[in-house]
Amino acid sequence: xxxxxxxxxxxxxxxxxxxxxxxxxxxxxxxxxxxxxxxxxxxxxxxxxxxxxxxxxxxxxxxxxxxxxxxxxxxxxx
Amino acid sequence: xxxxxxxxxxxxxxxxxxxxxxxxxxxxxxxxxxxxxxxxxxxxxxxxxxxxxxxxxxxxxxxxxxxxxxxxxxxxxxxxxxxxxxxxxxxxxxxxxxxxxxxxxxxxxxxxxxxxxxxxxxxxxxxxxxxxxxxxxxxxxxxxxxxxxxxxxxxxxxxxxxxxxxxxxxxxxxxxxxxxxxxxxxxxxxxxxxxxxxxxxxxxxxxxxxxxxxxxxxxxxxxxxxxxxxxxxxxxxxxxxxxxxxxxxxxxxxxxxxxxxxxxxxxxxxxxxxxxxxxxxxxxxxxxxxxxxxxxxxxxxxxxxxxxxxxxxxxxxxxxxxxxxxxxxxxxxxxxxxxxxxxxxxxxxxxxxxxxxxxxxxxxxxxxxxxxxx
Lengths: 78, 374
Description:
heterodimer, A: mainly alpha, elongated, B: 374 residues, mainly alpha, Hydantoin permease, two-stranded antiparallel sheet, 77% helix
């Protein structure tokens, strides 16, 4: 049900936007638009259905964990 | 030119002020108090010079690349490939910030005001307004920021004045009782939150009219906002105490709930919530705009308008994906978030400034040598 609604919304956005871009022959813009729309639709379905997927913030935690641990160690010594 | 709108310095300052207040007016006391307890007002005040320095770095960096946004400057400065990689890092930052702010609005409304409304519904309503604002361009957004600014400032001052009778100076004692490490952490939070997130400013500077007092005005705005936030931290510690401030994510909302003047002026917390949502809206919309503008500049698109609706869907999805529950990003991610803000807001601009500086120096030397040789 949710999937159908999201696909309908995506189709509506296409109907509004694609003619403008096609008239100007914006090929690159259209490609980016389609990629974004597909990604957005998939993410919206995941969000509505509340499926658990790994959070992108895990990347930030992964990058900064060593730095934080290092700083903690440095300040604890002093 | 992707963006045809032009904003003047006053509108830019209004936008800056709202971005800086943004979601901070609600969560800043809790975040900084969780690091440096009853001394967090000292940390917040001591962080102001460092924060102003980081904004000065951004303005200085803009001076080296006049007429270029952050993303264009990165590509011009670091070359096509390295520039694109650092740009993608910034775009990720903008996208995640936009989604996090959406999620914060949703979480605040569903935990405090409308507990039975599903989270995605609030996100949807919020994002429709954001899309509406963005599709009219930066000019309309800046003008509406100018319009809403007095309201926001007025109600923040209103909150400060009416909660003062309940303040107790004994709650901030012992002064300097937490030790230097805790205060240093508090200073890091101050640099990261109200100041570091102003990196979005770098995306707007090329579209402002070039006036002489621009840099001074931006620094002055940042100073005023940070003083306001420090006052808020101080008042919330004096009214609620360090322990209660630390464990309430929405400290200023609790403050507003406590206002009671002569059994007449009561329950004004919803006004504070409205003001908070207003300022958060501008912050979220600005980051959303930066993301779309940035991605169009990286990919050299001719317009960013077609990307607004698809990006709104991405933000809508990410707002839910970003964390399974409210405690994940308020209790786990926040320690790393401070580092991330400082990296994006201060460290990378400083690095870029050094690159410009040395490149100018070296190329200048080479020019001199060539001149003297001939």
